[in-house]
Input
Amino acid sequence: MESLDQCTQRQREVYEFIREKIRSRGYGPTVREIAEHFEIRSPNGVVCHLKALEKKGWIKRAPNMSRAIELVAEPIRPRGFRLAGQIAAGVLHEAIEQDELVDFDEFFSPEDADLFVLKVSGDSMIEDHIADGDFVVIRRQATARAGQIVVAITDEGDATLKRWYPEKDRIRLQPANSQMKPIYVKDARVVGVVLGVVRKVS
Output
């Protein structure tokens, strides 16, 4: 593996941007996000930087998955929980609140490096008691059983919170809202599985 000092300045900047995104939200940026951040007009320009970083041993990329970038040299091991951003779950509606507080330490170990937190946007999982504005605690893993609630990323780079149902020639991402239809995709990957839900009580 080559030293980062042997990479070009732009390659180092791209690497640092990827690292920051993985640390802050749990998964890497798309080619489009990298292009927009660095004002690179052509996606091919971004791909060239990614291929160079991969060849030099700093990242790994999964084929046909736009966000599937892993850091090889310094895998991310954050301490405790972190707010990794927002996750789409349908059309925005007023959040439903509960009248009790939850002590995280009773359910989750803050020392578990595979746990992270996402804030929910939307109400497609409302019938599973996951409302707009809630926080979901996620265990980072690449597999899930049929029917589990997962953070999934499609082959187009879209992230969503849904129930995971692999079918014969496609994957069904099932909302928990009788007013919404399932999403069918040919390819998708699991980023993590929901362990719990936290709702702030005003």
Notes: The CA atoms of residues 8 and 49 lie 9 Å apart. The longest helix spans residues 9-25.
